[in-house]
Specification:
elongated, two-stranded antiparallel sheet, Pnp Oxidase, Chain A, mainly beta, about 50% strand, 7-stranded antiparallel beta sheet
């Protein structure tokens, strides 16, 4: 169970992962001998899946359009993970997120030619993550 302040209609969030890219660390005496040390932390992109009515996600589409226009559209997204008793277990602050990929697919079957439900996927580049 989780809660995200980006939208109440999020049904899935990809794993939030950090990695430390290796950096060469030569010892200076032997030019062929190289060791590696961990570099600065980097974070993988985070993907959000939505299943909602079209009108409920206008703020997300406005955010994506602002980023595609080149505006400073960085946003902090908070994800709170909860246990079965609805107690907060961990909170992730995804700081300076920028949308890099956005898709939406009509999954509604109203029969009248009008879309009723959209499946949306938003992938964000994360600059930094803080855990609480």
């Amino acid at each position: 169970m989780f809660e995200c302040d980006l939208s109440p209609h999020i049904v899935r969030i990809s794993p939030i992962r950090a990695y430390f890219p290796p950096i060469e660390n030569p010892d200076g005496r032997h030019y062929e001998y190289v060791t590696y040390m961990p570099g600065a932390p980097a974070w993988e992109d985070v993907t959000f899946d939505f299943l909602a009515h079209k009108d409920s996600l206008k703020n997300i589409e406005e955010w994506v359009k602002a980023a595609y226009r080149g505006e400073d559209a960085r946003k902090t997204i908070t994800v709170t993970v909860r246990n079965q008793a609805q107690e907060d277990v961990r909170t992730y602050d995804l700081i300076d997120c920028l949308p890099i990929h956005y898709t939406k697919v009509d999954v509604g079957a109203s029969g009248s030619g009008k879309s009723t439900i959209m499946k949306m996927t938003l992938t964000c580049k994360v600059n930094r993550i803080e855990c609480k």
